[in-house]
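User: For my dataset I need records formatted as: sequence, then structure tokens, nothing else. Please produce one.
Assistant:
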Amino acid sequence: MDERDNPVAEAAHRLNRRSFLKAALGAGGVVLLAACAPSNAPSPTTAPAKGASAPAAVATQSSAGAPTAAPAAGAAAPAKVGTETLRIAIGVDPDSLDPVGQTTTTIQNIVDYMCEPLVSLGEDSKIHPCLAESWVMAPDGKSYTFKLRQGVTFHDGAPFNADAVKLSWDRVLNKDMKVPLRSPMDVVESVTAVDASSVKFTLKNIFPPFISALAVTPYNIVSPNLAKSNPATYNDQPVGTGPYVYKSRTKGSELVLTRNEKYWGKLPYYQTVQFKIVPEAATRESLVLANQAEIIISPPMSDIPKLLSNSQVKVLLAPSNRTIFMAFDVSRSTPVKEKKFRQALNYAVDKEGIIKTILYGAGDVMDAPLSPMLFGYSKVGAYAYDPAKAKQMIKEGGWEGTKLKMYYSTGRYVGDAAFAQAIIGNFKDVGIECEGSTMDWPTYQATAITTAEKSTADLHVLGWAPGFLDAAQAMVQFQKSNWPPAGLSSSHYTNPEVEDLLDKAIKNTNEQERAQQYAAANKIVMDDAPWLFLWVQKFPIIYSAKIKGVGSIPNEKFSCIYAEPV
């Protein structure tokens, strides 16, 4: 489709992949642009002002022990503050508000208002100091010492110091604690307080994207009081150092935060932020148009052209590293355990047609198991829409008339319920019956992302937006160590050759060799087809023309902590 004829494509941000790849290795990472890196939001429907470089450290880490540091990114100028409430309508109800319990970027967005990481990503795509002011990497690359920001307190009055960091990280590393996104940090051997303002991370082996990975929400620092009272259990009233404080929650309805008036950095304008839980896209849209919300995530995609011409609102079609797919549960005793059957269903789905008619251009067909924005991406080639070939493969396998069970979400991903029905129709066209079911998001996660023994569906819709722009965080989906309950690899897929390539790549400091190892793994996974590979999703945000300071970063997080009236 020609972008000039498609207002959605014309509005979408197009980031330069090569510049992302250049810096994603070693220091690149992504997290909400919280107060640690204040927002300079790009104008809606235009490319980001900086030419889309990948997340890189503000200064290169030195193997000789020179510290990496940068000016504090939020803590200076007097803030313009108000007493108003900012209302944000999202599509899912939080499953957990504890940083360590995070699985969903939308909910991580909320958590990042309250709890902060040691380092964060700025809208300049560089890693910035946050609760850590600087860091030094040891010559052997197996330990990092961080100098901590001083004069910071948690919401409950506890001081932020090295002991607090250690206690928070004890929760992350506690094997009795369920941490769905812990796998990148399995490399951490120990966290020790050197003195009150210094903390040392010792690694089991070299891990090139370590600094990047620290910026991911599950590793945000919580109060020592919370860490002590909940060493292995979730606490859904986060206590951090962030610019907003937890106030109240009505499950299924709303979550309310209030400004932290003692915040160490720049104070946000809005005194209160209200997150409204609204699963229906059309209802979210009606709220922003009726001035009952200032920001909404993912409107009905069919309305994007109309919204672009509406002077009441601004449209931001942001780039995203999120891949949308249907995970085949290969542990099931149904034909989905057969590679040829899974390949046939990949050929059966009209992905381009769905993107055009349901997503209105807000996606690009997957041609590899991960987004082109990530280091380690290597184009393999998409499964073309070929129903005749799919039918032939199904016939050859003796799978005609197979009945499958599918779970799909409603309101979590762009057009999810609609595209799931379209895919069910595509399956029917090639002689496969499929029963689809949906449910609220917390129930959906618990039902779809489960152990092989508890699995009740043959395939389910999911999206994956790696927390940092490196294949290490994307390809973990194809490793046995990440099967539920340890992680989120709900296809229960493993391949010894893939496992070996990924184990080697994660420890390899040679960028070229590492890229080649990921490229080889990309090719095997696409052929094995543990997923129905769909598309890389764009991230639509609609906001009132009466406010400014709304932006996004490529791991599909909105950035509006520093939104304010025009």
